[in-house]
Recover the amino acids of this structure.
């Protein structure tokens, strides 16, 4: 069983964010200035020892990798931002490529949406700063050429000799079959068995039947949370008067409800499951936030073990964790001032159970 944790690289300054949000902007900007929206709302989330790190600091990723390896995590899945050859937030993984002494697996998840000034999921019109275009063979070639040195890295995650590549909104790509077929051919020319493409199911992508799509991963809690919001079931609000409620508009879902729904959803071979830590996007969305209630390290550990059992029964050896460091969504394994290293300890305990106490296929 290999645990792969999604990794957000937005913890260093870039010109695009400075232009849009002001000089010095990083993910920590919204995280640190977040405030409670109701009594008992756990905001702001503060990293342990107030470690508001900079990912361009060479020691930061070494520290992160050491924590992850000790917990039994197999690798990071870096969000990758590509806009017709223009790269954004690419420096952390480029630094990792150069630092061969950091012995840790990784892969990419192409977050193929326009770069906007309004946070994903927030209300209001989105000001597009960098449009997302796809083109045809000429652009596909440039994009594969960028991937090439990473694929050649022995640390890059490969499935049966094929580099693993996740794509967030695959159905948004007009000629995705042709594009993947071209990349698959290039990968074979480079000596691999092809490319292993995984579609990220946020809201039913409907592309898994394509012969060029090798697998899928449920991007949780976003997928199940969105379904529950649409259904209007299991949605509650903090116990306020209507006047306060209408002012703040914070929707809340039980952590247990989402996880039970996730576990009940059947999966087949190469349909990978995701576990998540917690969810609270109020640092990004403020009064339009969605917050899960009742998340604790112990509950996370329980659902992780259940997910491992399900995945083994389904013949799958990958589980994705959302996330390593999504602080702006309250969704992180990294230590904070409330729970310290307890989430990482639950991961470690689960992996010990797999290898020493014998979680097996039934």
């Amino acid at each position: 069983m290999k645990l792969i944790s999604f990794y957000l690289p937005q913890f260093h300054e870039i010109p695009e964010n400075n232009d849009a949000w002001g000089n010095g902007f990083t993910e920590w900007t919204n995280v640190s200035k977040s405030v409670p929206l109701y009594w008992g709302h756990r905001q702001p989330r503060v990293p342990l020892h107030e470690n508001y790190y900079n990912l361009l600091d060479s020691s930061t990723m070494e520290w992160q990798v050491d924590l992850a390896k000790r917990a039994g995590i197999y690798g990071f899945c870096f969000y990758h931002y590509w806009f017709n050859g223009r790269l954004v937030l690419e420096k952390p993984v480029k630094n990792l490529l150069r630092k061969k002494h950091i012995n840790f697996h990784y892969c990419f998840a192409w977050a193929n949406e326009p770069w906007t000034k309004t946070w994903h999921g927030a209300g209001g019109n989105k000001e597009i700063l960098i449009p997302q275009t796809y083109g045809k063979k000429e652009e596909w070639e440039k994009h594969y050429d960028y991937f090439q040195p990473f694929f050649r890295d022995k640390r890059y995650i490969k499935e049966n000799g094929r580099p693993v590549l996740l794509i967030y909104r695959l159905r948004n790509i007009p000629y995705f079959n042709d594009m993947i077929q071209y990349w698959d051919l290039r990968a074979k020319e480079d000596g691999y068995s092809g490319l292993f493409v995984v579609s990220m199911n946020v809201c039913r992508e409907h592309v898994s039947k394509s012969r060029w799509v090798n697998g899928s991963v449920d991007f949780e809690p976003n997928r199940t949370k969105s379904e529950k919001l649409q259904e209007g079931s299991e949605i509650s609000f903090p116990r306020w008067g209507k006047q306060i409620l209408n002012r703040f508009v914070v929707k809340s879902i039980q952590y247990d409800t989402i996880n039970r729904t996730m576990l009940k959803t059947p999966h087949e071979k190469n349909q990978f499951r995701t576990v998540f830590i917690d969810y609270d996007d109020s640092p990004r969305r403020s009064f339009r936030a969605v917050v899960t209630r009742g998340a604790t390290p112990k509950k996370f550990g329980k659902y992780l073990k259940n997910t491992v059992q399900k995945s083994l029964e389904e013949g799958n050896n990958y589980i994705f964790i959302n996330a390593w460091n999504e602080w702006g969504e309250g969704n992180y394994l990294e230590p904070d001032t409330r729970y310290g290293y307890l989430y990482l300890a639950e991961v470690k305990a689960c992996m010990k159970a797999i290898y020493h106490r014998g979680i097996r296929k039934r």
Remarks:
- DSSP finds twelve helices and 17 strands in the chain.
- The CA atoms of residues 16 and 88 lie 8 Å apart.
